[in-house]
Each structure stands twice: as structure tokens, then as C-alpha cells.
Amino acid sequence: MKGATCHFCGGSFRNRQAVRAHLKSCAGYRQLPKATLPNVGSKPGTLGSRDTHPRVGPTWEPVPDANPSRPQASPSAAGTGQKAHLPGLARWMIQSVKDEVIGKWWSPNTIPSETKAQALIAIEQELPRLPVDQLPRSELKTIAEGIRDRYYRPVIQAQQRAREDEERKQNQARERTRLIAAGTAQASRALRQQEHLDGLTRLELEQKVKRALERDIGGSESEADVHAQVNKMLERELKPIQQEAREKVRQQLIAHGVAYAKEALDCEEDLEAWERSQIERDVKQALHQEITGEESQDDVERRVDELLDQILPETDEDDGEDEWDEEDEEDDDEEDEED
């Protein structure tokens, strides 16, 4: 008996009967559609050659699958004649639920297309595993919503946080603008009370305070914090200006006192020129030590009179005036006793 070859997998066998028995497990044969196929076996070395023996009939027959797959009918469909319609009904139910929980679902949040696609795929994978024909539609909808929310919730929460952050930034920006305006107005009121400031200096200081507030204020500060900051800046900026202004007034008061002393000394005829000059220097030196710049001209004149009384020697005329004053006091005493 001569050998034979399987044309589907290329295996060699003892004879054609062995090839036919092999077809039950031949992977190449099982992948082909069930149709009439060419001769499955031939003699070695005669592949493609014309068969010289007359054929009595086909050399093989299709062998049915030993374990064919059978569709499983659900218990609810058994004996009702609806076995062929159940898969379509279940599919329609799943599609209806998907359309309601995904397609018709509305939210103020924007759900990306990728997230929707992920939720749809997850629902399509989960629902067919359930006994769709045995569950109420409301329960299927609840299950589908839970699957959807697993994908939607992180997106919605992230968008909510972004909106809250944006709203907080806007509120902080508005509060920052209000605080800067309040601080600038406070500085303007305080500077108008400084009488020694000219208009240009006052405007420059207002702008300087405003720029500092725009640089330092973020919007989370309280109004009391801004008030304290403005006061601190004004004190720092006004201190040298006030010192300069006070020194200028001080020098003017000292010059007025020296001139007042010179006029008083000009009335003293018994003084030599060098004595007048020495007294003027002494008065000026004393005024330099005592005058602060906050006094008035009358205060300075009174102080010069006191200094001149201490420095000038008493004259005979002054003695006569003193004696006359004493005599007048004695006469007054006598009159009082007589009364």
C-alpha cells in the first residue's frame, strides 16, 4: 500500500483512509468553509499529475464537528418561541440605556469626547455580562450611570476645582483693586494735611505710595493692614522732608532773633562796636542751641529780650529807675498804713 499526503497541512500518511481519518483534527481543513474540496490525497511524487485510475466517487466526505457550539437559551425564553429574538431585544435594551445615560445626559460641565468614548465602551462591556432580559430597565440604567460616573466624576471635579480657582482669583483681583484705591485715597488725605508741601511734591508722593501698593498688595490683606502700610510709607517719606522744612523755619527764626537783637543793641549808646558785635554773637549762639523751628517769632523775641537782660550791664539810668520804683513802693506802703 502506497502512502498519501494531506493537501491541507502537507502531512504524510500511510494511505488515503488515514488522510480521511486525519481530517477530523486537521487545522487547515477545519478553517475552510464547508464545501466540496479537491482530492485530499495522492501518491508520493504525483502532486498535480493526472489520475490514471477511474474514480468511483469522492474520496472524502465532510466530517461534522464533534463538539459544535450551541446557543444557550435563557430560562425566560424557553418554550416561548422567542429564542431567536432575545439577543436583539437585549441589545436594544442596552443601546437604549446607553443613549439615555450618555447621549441624553446633560451637565453644565464639558465632557471630553475621549471620556464619553471610554464610558460607552465600559458600559458595552459590563451590561452584556448581566441577565439583561431579567432585570428591570431602571436597574440597568442605575448600573450604567454608575459606570458612567466612574469616568465622568474625575473630569467634573477637576473642572469644578478650576472654576473655583478662577472665581477665587477674580475675587482676589477685585479686592486688590479696592485695597489699592483705599490706600491711595488715605495717602492723599494725609498729604493734604501737610501744609509745607507744594502741589508737585504732594502728587509725586501719592504716585509713589500707589506704585508701592501695586507692587506689594496681593488682595488677601485686610484694610487695616493696608492702612498701617500706608502710614509707615508716609512716615518714612515725610520724615526727611519735614526735617528739611523744620530746619529752614529754624534758620529763619534765628535770623529774625539776631536782627531783633541788633535793633535793640543799636539803642544802647554806651556800648562800643566790639561789645555790640560780641553780644550779637552770644545771642546768635544761644538761639542756635535753643530754637527748634516750632516756635513763633514772638517766642523768639521774648527769648532775645531775656538774653539781652542777662548780658547787658546795668546803667545809672537803670539804677535811678530802680530807686524811683523803690520810693514809689514805700509811698504806696505808707498810704496803705494810714488807711
Explain what the structure shows:
The chain is mostly helical. The chain is built from ten helices and two strands. A hairpin with a 6-residue loop joins strand 1 (4-5) and strand 2. Helix 3 (86-103) packs parallel to helix 5 (137-192) and helix 5 packs antiparallel against helix 6. The radius of gyration is 59 Å and the shape is rod-shaped.
Break the fold down into its secondary structure elements and pairings.
Elements lengths: L3 E2 L6 E2 L2 H7 L4 H4 L55 H18 L9 H14 L10 H56 L6 H18 L6 H44 L6 H18 L6 H15 L4 H23 L1
Helix pairs in contact: 3-5, 4-5, 5-6, 5-7, 7-8, 7-9, 8-9
- Class by alpha and beta content: mainly alpha
Which strands sit side by side, in order, in the main sheet? 1-2
* Count of alpha and pi helical runs: 10
Percent in strands:
under 5%
The Rg value, from CA coordinates, equals 59 Å
Helicity level, as a percent range?
Answer: 55-70%
Q: What is the H/E order?
A: EEHHHHHHHHHH
In this structure, how is the largest beta sheet organized? 2 strands, antiparallel
Oligomeric assembly: single chain
Unreliable spans are 34-86
Count the strands? 2
Outline: rod-shaped
Compute the separation of the termini in Å: 187 Å
What is the overall pLDDT average?
78
Supply the key terms.
64% helix, two-stranded antiparallel ribbon, 1% strand, mainly alpha, rod-shaped, 339 residues, single chain
